[in-house]
Amino acid sequence: MIEGVSPAGRRRSHASAALRVINRPARFPEHGVWPFEMRADVAAAFLDFRTTRELMAAIVEGDAPKATAVRGEGKSREPVWHVDSLKEFLAKRHGTSVDGKTGGRLRDVIAGHAAFSRNR
Predict the structure, then answer these.
(1) Is the pLDDT assigned to residue 77 strictly greater than 90?
(2) CA-based torsion, 5, 84, 52, 45: positive or negative
(3) pLDDT tens-digit map of 91-105
């Protein structure tokens, strides 16, 4: 059951696992700017998957985030992802933060680069 309808009545706060996604090729934004809310094909491109089928398989395995909301009503319902949730997922995977800071790991990156440079 999906709970939490927004004031507009179209958006929901939680995505349903029962939603089906048609397999489509990943699609990059037409003008090169990632929208705040993405359908499965654009979210797949953002996460570097070739198709929405690959994205859905990655979600099942825990290698991609679940949709953050559901848009539409009846048969036109579809999962959508907020760009910040995708960025946060990737940042956690890479041990960074959304703003690109690495916390204590920057020291390791610099040390690794210095060691690489000395061995050239």
Answers:
(1) yes
(2) positive
(3) 999 888 877 665 555
Exposure string for 81-109, b = 16+ CB within 10 A, e = fewer:
bbbebbeebbbeeeeeeeeeeeeeeeeee
Answer whether 41's CB lies under 8 Å from 27's CB: yes
Distance CA 58, CA 65 (A): 8
**Is residue 73's pLDDT more than 80?**
yes
- Per-residue pLDDT, averaged over 44-59, amounts to 98
Contacts of 97-106 with CB under 8 Å at 24 or more apart are none
What gap in Å lies between CA 91 and CA 59, rounded to an integer?
A: 16
Q: Write out the chain in H/E/C secondary structure.
A: CCCCECCCCCEECCCCCCCCCCCCECCCCCCCCCCCEECHHHHHHHCCCCEHHHHHHHHHHCCCCCCCEEECCHHHCEEEEEHHHHHHHHHHHCCCCCCCCCHHHHHHHHHHHHHHHHCC
Residue 94, token pair as written in the block: 């890479």
